[in-house]
Amino acid sequence: MNDTHTSFARAQQHIPGGVNSPVRAFKSVGGEPLFIERAQGAYLYATDGRAYLDYVGSWGPMILGHAHPDVVAAVQEATARGLSFGAPTELETQMAERVCELVPSIDMVRMVNSGTEATMSAIRLARGFTGRDKIVKFEGCYHGHADALLVKAGSGALTLGVPDSPGVPAAVAEHTLTLPYNDLQAVNDLFARIGGQIACIIVEPVAGNMNCVPPEPGFLEGLRRVCDAHGALLILDEVMTGFRVALGGAQALYGITPDLTTLGKIIGGGMPVGAFGGRRDVMEHLAPLGPVYQAGTLSGNPLAMTAGLKTLELIAVPGFHERLTETTTHLLRGLENAATAAGVALRTNQAGAMFGLFFTDAPAVRSFADVMASDADRFRRFFHGMLDEGVNLAPSAFEAGFVSAAHGPAEIEATVAAAQRTFAAMA
Ligand code: PMP
């Protein structure tokens, strides 16, 4: 057993902020992060000797729960055959076939190593294909940390209060046009003015980086329409929602056909993986078939493909997502009832096994402005209360929560009981 404070102090000596990704540092909630020794099922085991019921799931990938025995065994087997070849493997073809089967809008797919690479490459491809420079994104949506996309980018950037990072040249950011999420009128107005210069719209089909904000009815359909009318491509960033809100992702849940889709998280089963794919005529513009360059030393890595393929196999069993969605609904109803009983104003949002908690009196949370109007200080108190109770939530009021298949009725009940005690202390 190790003292967390000592571990964090040591980490900070040689790692900026002691972390390899900013939101892990607990900056927005205060305090010091847990150091994790191992994880199993719905639980993280920290170096403080305690077990924590986990609703972060490594920020989305661990939809089967941590260290699923079948995934671990498959990766162990693959490890013995070699860690990386830098040459084609049948595993990559199997992965591509699987992705195209599960997500019918994808005719061809290219594997990369992170969600950031996926969105960055998809944007380059959209620009190369259309011959246009401008892109449209939405306030509070995060698409990774590529320069052109680090504008009004949600979660980590929101948490730190630096939505526009120094180091991003103004000349790069000037082609990124940002509009309010769920505001179709703003999109139509922009396209009416300069639609012919816009290469693509990139959107989180369920916003998961400003907490969790589902699309309003008609919003995604409207984006599809305006792209078609102006010859722009629609990119659904399903890094978070892909294989989570439904087996076929948000595009299956809402019935939207994008031109390109970006994937990450679950597709790697916990290994560092991303992917982008879509229409064959667009994907054929990629090198080596076409002129748009994109590459990666470790892309399609055999261990990552193995973890991803096994995960996709296990979540494709009939009823998997329906059960996960029910579990999530059950959790949210429990939390709402506990909040009401304690006189705490709480609103929740849900899309499949993705959820958002908002401390607000507002009747609903539908926009970036609604999210920003919720009480971040109450969230901080709730977060730390729950952590003391042994429940690990994302350490920011701007992150979505995730439920895994390892969260059973006992885990939900324990979470609601912890929330009852925490709300009582907050009220
Ligand atoms: N797009 C979305 C919607 C994401 O949620 C994230 C990461 N949370 C990314 C892109 C970037 O992925 P990565 O962190 O793997 O680079």
TrEMBL record:
It catalyses: (S)-4-amino-5-oxopentanoate = 5-aminolevulinate. It is found in: Cytoplasm. The keyword Isomerase applies. Its EC number is 5.4.3.8. Its cofactor is pyridoxal 5'-phosphate. Homodimer. This is Glutamate-1-semialdehyde 2,1-aminomutase. Belongs to the class-III pyridoxal-phosphate-dependent aminotransferase family. HemL subfamily. The modification N6-(pyridoxal phosphate)lysine is found at K265. Keywords: Cytoplasm, Isomerase, Porphyrin biosynthesis, Pyridoxal phosphate. InterPro entries: 4pyrrol_synth_GluAld_NH2Trfase, Aminotrans_3, Aminotrans_3_PPA_site, PyrdxlP-dep_Trfase, PyrdxlP-dep_Trfase_major, PyrdxlP-dep_Trfase_small. It comes from the Bacteria. Pathway: Porphyrin-containing compound metabolism; protoporphyrin-IX biosynthesis; 5-aminolevulinate from L-glutamyl-tRNA(Glu): step 2/2. GO terms for biological process: protoporphyrinogen IX biosynthetic process. GO terms for cellular component: cytoplasm. The gene is hemL. GO terms for molecular function: glutamate-1-semialdehyde 2,1-aminomutase activity; pyridoxal phosphate binding; transaminase activity. NCBIfam families: hemL (TIGR00713), PRK00062.1 (NF000818).
